[in-house]
Amino acid sequence: MQTKLTLRLDDALIQRAKLLSKKSGKSVSQMVADYFAMLDETRSISIPKITPIVRSLKGSLDNPDISEDDYKKYIEDKYL
User: Fold this and answer.
1) Are 24 and 31 in contact (CB under 8 A)?
2) Which of 10, 30, 33, 64 could pair covalently with 26 via S-S, beta carbons 3.0-4.6 A apart?
3) Sign of torsion, CA 45 51 54 59?
4) How far is CA 14 from CA 19, 37, 52, 53, in A?
5) Domain for residue 68, yes or no?
6) In a domain, 78, yes or no
7) How many structural domains is the chain composed of?
């Protein structure tokens, strides 16, 4: 069942929506319906849990005193 919905929007936004509607070949109503459907889909996407190893590393690179050159020197000393 379809029900009418009234939206109050800025005139310029409505004109841009109508132009986009014409270019895409979809009605403004269909574009709004697609957008609302997308919002529902994005809510159902689960965010993976952080593993304990990753959690232990969090913040380990926050030291602003370490430069890229320092890191390169550390790697060279460690592996060469």
Assistant:
1) yes
2) 30
3) positive
4) 9, 20, 49, 50
5) no
6) no
7) 1
- Of the candidates 45, 47, 51, 5, which has an alpha carbon nearest to the alpha carbon of residue 29? 5
Domain of 52 in residue numbering reads as: 1-60
Residue 65 inside a domain? The answer is no
Banded model confidence at residue 64, pLDDT cuts 50, 70, 90: low
Say how far apart CA 47 and CA 35 lie, in whole Å.
21
Using one digit for the tens of pLDDT, what is the confidence trace for 4-49?
999 999 999 999 999 999 999 999 999 999 998 888 776 666 677 8
Closest CA to 2 of 38, 23, 44, 32: 32
Closest CA to 3 of 23, 33, 31, 47: 33
Tokens of 65: 């005193």
Residue type, 55: R
Q: Is residue 75 part of a domain?
A: no
Please say whether the beta carbons of 18 and 27 come within 8 A: no
